[in-house]
Amino acid sequence: MELWDAYDQSMNKLEGMTLVRGEPVPEGCFHLVCEILVRHRDGSILLMQRDFRKPLGGMWEASAGGSALQGETPLECARRELSEETGIHADTLREVGRIIHPGHRAIFVEYLCLTDIGKDQIVLQEGETIAFRWVSDKQLRAMKKEELATCRIWQFLNEPALAGHPESQGAPCMPEVLEAKHIRLRKARESDWKSMLEAVWSDEAVYQWMLYTPTLTEEDARDRCQRSIRYQKDHYAYFVALRDTDEAIGLCAIRENEPGHFEESGICIGTRYQGHGYGKEIVALLLDLAFLKLGATDFRYGYFRENLRSRLLAEHFGFRYDQSYEFTRPWDGAVKQIDSCILLRETYLAQHQAPESEP
User: Fold this and answer.
1) Is the pLDDT of residue 158 over 60?
2) Of the candidates 343, 331, 341, 332, the residue with the CA atom closest to the CA atom of residue 310
3) Class of 3-170 per CATH?
4) Which of 97, 100, 130, 186 has the fewest CB atoms within 10 Å, measured from its CB?
5) How confident is residue 91, by pLDDT bands cut at 50, 70 and 90?
6) CATH 3.90.79.10, the chain: domain bounds
7) Where in the chain is the domain with CATH 3.40.630.30?
8) pLDDT, position 173
9) How far is CA 320 from CA 97, 286, 314, 339, in A?
10) Rounded CA gap, 273 and 282, in Å?
11) What is the mean pLDDT of the chain?
């Protein structure tokens, strides 16, 4: 019997609670999974083929991973899984991201392993893996989704932590500024803490619709701004600023969950700036970024069911309803109904080109 520790969505361990592999994970609880991408010093990536007796048997994954056992830290789990599934013993692993998967009730912690191991020295694990191969970024991106057991690591391939080799030079660049008629999306600055605290982070009318914990003090706002700067450096995340004054009035972000499949991961602006069309300008810029610059095949947009403004915004851009699910907000325990909708690439392009075809 395999035992796991239980965590909340913020990855705080829930003391006194034990999860058992194969048994349902209770609502509001998550188990920890670690995944490791192995990149050789020459830039190639290690793919492992799953044993045909396992779920998703015969499919390839990059490169190793599994659930953390009870008492293991994320790093301990990553080192163990890497050793067991590939034979690689790594003292240094670099965390490159975390992904929460509500459906699996799992928190995925993603690591990078840089190695100069002999390429023929990979060790297969009986009952887990049956073959391996080294591929370039280009070859990995050319693989069909049906060949890969998971594509989660895709969203981190363009990050500096995973770059630094010739083939990565063709990866999409990170736009520093995106501009519309009245607003611009730009990276956070230290001086933004005050306007963000007043307009967004401490405004109950704003944070009632958000997943983040409210920020109410100057000290916390300064700290949050620093964290925003660090996070935005390597992610498609921005502060929203007025073009005429450059004052920060909101925030927004998108992420790629699997190759070509994007979603917004937070959009908001201060209450006193709502009703001026800024929300439409933000979404338009993010859709242009995803579809025209990053080659998205679809884009998901989610909102609390009672948030009428967000629903109308989704309808304006042609999103169609896809699914609903319950979500327990970590900072106040509120149970929220999330409506998720989707916009397909062909729909976006048809709308985007429509004005050009009019007389």
Assistant:
1) no
2) 341
3) alpha beta
4) 100
5) low
6) 3-170
7) 177-326+333-357
8) 57
9) 29, 17, 8, 11
10) 13
11) 87
Q: Say how many CA atoms lie within 13 Å of 155 toward its Cβ.
A: 23
Q: How far apart are CA 104 and CA 86, in angstroms?
A: 25
CATH code of domain 177-326+333-357: 3.40.630.30
Alpha helices per DSSP H over 167-213: 193-196, 204-207
Give the length of the chain.
359
Question: With pLDDT > 70 as the criterion, what percentage of the chain qualifies?
Answer: 91
Cβ contacts of residue 178 below 8 Å, gap of 6+? 184, 185, 186, 238, 285, 288, 289
- The reply to whether the predicted model has a pTM over 0.70 is no
The residue type at 50: R
Q: Are β-strands 298-304 and 94-101 bridged in parallel, bridged antiparallel, or unpaired?
A: unpaired
What are the distances in angstroms from CA 241 to CA 126, 192, 217, 335? 55, 10, 21, 31
3-state SS class at 106? strand
pLDDT at 166 over 50: no
3-state SS of 267-294?
Answer: EEECHHHCCCCHHHHHHHHHHHHHHHHC
Helix (H) or strand (E) holding 101: strand 94-101
Q: Which amino acid is at 107?
A: I
Is the N-terminal amide bond of 63 cis, ω within 30° of 0?
Answer: yes
Instruction: State the Cα angle at 232 between 195 and 213, rounded to 5°.
Output: 60
Per-residue confidence at 188, pLDDT binned at 50, 70, 90?
very high
CB atoms within 10 A of CB 269: 21
Q: Which residues of 33-62 are buried (b: 16+ CB within 10 A; e: fewer)?
A: bbbbbbbbeebbbbbbbbbeeeeeeebbbb
Tokens of 153: 């690591």
Instruction: For residue 37, give the 3-state DSSP assignment.
Output: strand
- The pair of structure tokens assigned to 232 is 């935005």
Apex 270 CA angle, 324 and 239, nearest 5: 85
